[in-house]
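REVIEWER CHECKLIST
Item 1: Sequence provided? yes
Item 2: Single chain? yes
Item 3: Sequence as submitted:
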Amino acid sequence: MVVGSVGSNSGIFTSGTISISTLTGDLSVSQNINTQNTSTSALILNAGQSTAAGVSTGGNINFSGGASITLGTNGRASLYSGSISGSTGLTAIVGSGSKSFSI
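Item 4: Structure as written out by the authors:
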């Protein structure tokens, strides 16, 4: 699945919550994802949702083209990816360290 451009529309912009998942395989983000939502579930990105936790090959989140994430004040994004090392651009979005990140 790709978050990209269709015609003159690029990325995602909303005031509501956003939840994007793949059952298997990668989730590619090449355009910005923006929500003004301020909740603890403002954004959920989940690559390989049907793959058991701890399996690094089920799906990764890949950011490209300078894509970014913007949330409302105190909004939280939860990003679920098979592995940090198997993803592209993920550490630029959330940093690196433990397996649990909140941005």
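Item 5: Key structural point noted by reviewer: The mean pLDDT is 85.
Item 6: Recommendation: ____
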